[in-house]
Design brief:
Length: 242
């Protein structure tokens, strides 16, 4: 059973209709239960019928049964166009709508990155922007960093118009509930798949953690507060204040 606010259901109605086919959705308003979304049939079959949806304030993970990358692409193809998914090590994560503070920080960082990298070979990009990462030929992943810097855009843009390379720098703005996901799963994935630098922006503690990877191992890390002069570990001349 999943509990969500009436506002969340209103803003993402299509998503919760599909989720209700697997388990009841309890709708709350001002902390009180005011309604329920339930399936009209006892059994419902779709591409993820053996999966369990785990509620999390930042993502929903289909994680009881791992599925193939091809199955993930099928599910995403059939999903609502406003829904954003990530696929990491066989598990699907349905990303929830970001909070205001997340968007405010992301906007400021995007402007800073855009101004600094203007006219340079490397260029910033921001979500939604699919990045396919491979641990090896059989282990394909799909993520959407909040913000990234790409240094091989022209060389790695395929004929279909999609980028097929690995960002040099990836940035994630985290929420309290996504800490484990971003600090462990994504850090390991980025490090192993060739990302050179990874930033975790923590609005709650007003910190930015920067990690430099070399030969797919952690080479250096540093923590800045929002009041500090924040410096990139990879782009030596790139520094700014929030």
């Amino acid at each position: 059973m999943i509990k969500v606010t009436a506002t969340e259901v209103k803003n993402n109605f299509g998503k919760y209709i599909r989720l209700a086919a697997k388990e009841d959705i309890i709708i709350t308003k001002n902390g009180k239960e005011v309604g329920r979304l339930s399936a009209t049939k006892e059994e419902y079959e779709d591409d993820c019928e053996d999966s369990v949806i785990r509620e999390d304030s930042s993502a929903y993970s289909f994680e009881k049964k791992k599925m193939s990358y091809e199955k993930f692409l099928e599910i995403r193809e059939k999903s609502d166009e406003h829904e954003q998914y990530e696929y990491i090590d066989g598990e699907i994560y349905l990303l929830a709508s970001p909070k205001v503070i997340h968007q405010q920080i992301l906007l400021e960082l995007t402007l800073i990155f855009g101004n600094w990298f203007k006219g340079k070979k490397c260029t910033p990009a921001f979500a939604p922007f699919d990045i396919e990462l491979q641990r090896n030929a059989k282990k394909r992943n799909m993520v959407q960093p909040d913000l990234m810097v790409i240094c091989d855009l022209e060389e790695k843009t395929a004929e279909d118009g999609f980028y097929k390379g690995v960002p040099t720098l990836a940035v994630e703005v985290i929420s309290g509930s996504s800490r484990g996901h971003d600090y462990i799963k994504k850090m390991d994935l980025y490090m192993e798949c060739g990302v050179q630098e990874y930033w975790i922006v923590d609005p709650e503690n007003q910190e930015i953690h920067t990690y430099l990877f070399k030969d797919r191992k952690l080479a250096k890390n540093k923590t800045h507060t929002f009041k500090d002069q924040i410096k990139s570990l990879y782009f030596e001349d790139f520094s700014f204040t929030l």
